[in-house]
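Quick one: structure for this chain?
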Amino acid sequence: MNIGFSIKTIRRQLGVTQHELAEKCHLSQTSLSQIETGIKRPTQKTLKKICTVLGIPESLVYILAIQDTDVPTSKRRIYDMLFPSIKSLALQIVGDENLSILRQAQVA
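Got it. Here's what it folds into:
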């Protein structure tokens, strides 16, 4: 499971820079970078703050963080069939629902 990569993917999908997200979450850009690269794992409080700022449920972060190595070999076939569609849908939800909200917050 790669939470940091998931956060980075969502942040980029929404067109938010690392600096902007770090500032809005009251984190240093270095800390956010370490989270996104997997050097540090975010605390539950930090993850919640990031999700709140991005306007997404935590569950989307976890869904996008799933890697094939997280899936038991016996379930890999079904994972390979379903996960690309699930990932695509999750990214559509992120982009469609939150892009306008995020742009409004940037204007304010």
